[in-house]
Amino acid sequence: MPSSGLGSPALLRLMQLSSSLCPIGAFAYSQGLETAVERGWVTTERALAQWMSGLGEHALARLDLPLLARAHDAARDEDVPRLVAIGQQVLANREARELMEQERQLGRSLASLLETLGAPLAHHFCRHERASYVVCFALGAVHFGVGVELGMTGFCFAWCEQQVSAAARLIPLGHMAAQRALSEVLEQVPDWVAHARCVPDDEIGSSTPGLGMSAAWHETQYTRLFRS
Fold first, then answer.
1. In this structure, is residue 20 part of a structural domain?
2. In terms of residue numbers, what domain contains 207?
3. Which of 17, 22, 110, 132 could form a disulfide with 136 if both were Cys (CB 3.0 to 4.6 A apart)?
4. CB–CB of 124/80 below 8 Å?
5. What pTM was computed for the model?
């Protein structure tokens, strides 16, 4: 397996996988942030950092990252049934229809990209009803020789960058303020990853009622820029 050290091909491929230029359509989703802005919950740089920090601690670190780690192990073992089961678990924990659709659509899109890039297991998820972005990100990490913790870190960066990008269009937030918020939240990523590595199977799950309500309300929001 290629090294994941500084300047290694694996690290560069993780950057490719985590980039906002990755053509899977992530820019079309706000993950409930649009309604949070509409309702006045997130209207400043400080509020954005708090919103992201809360989701990172109570959702990513307790749900997405632990399942990504398990998907990484399953992908390494080429265990497709296990990957499908993990994808189903991810989807079952999405609190609203739009969040579930986002998870499935991004998963299918990433699977199609990975198939193009030669990932041998990706074709199983290109049109699968249980396709999951979390699972397919793990597939990509394994295909590119990226270790599990570095892969989890890249996943967090992709999520943080997407949230800040959405906020810059919604609040509106200036470029400097957006980068300050991003910098503040990125400092917490190592803690999210460390916590995720310790979550036992029977404790995987998120507790983010604000996200759930925001995402559900977004389904009927009158004016929308984003799909979630």
1. no
2. 29-218
3. 110
4. yes
5. 0.95
The secondary structure of 188-217 as a DSSP string is THHHHHHHHTT--GGG-----HHHHHHHHH
Q: Is residue 17 part of a domain?
A: no
| Average pLDDT for 100-105 | 96
Contacts of 169 (CB under 8 A, 6+ apart): 225
pLDDT in tens, 3-32: 455 557 899 999 999 998 899 999 999 999
* pLDDT greater than 50 at residue 2: no
What percentage of the chain carries pLDDT values higher than 90? 86
4 belongs to a structural domain: no
CA distances to 7, 11, 59, 95, 96 from 209, in Å: 40, 35, 10, 8, 11
Alpha helices in 6-144 (DSSP H): 9-18, 33-38, 45-55, 65-76, 80-92, 97-116, 133-143
DSSP H or E stretch at residue 180: helix 175-186
CATH of the domain at 189: 1.10.4190.10
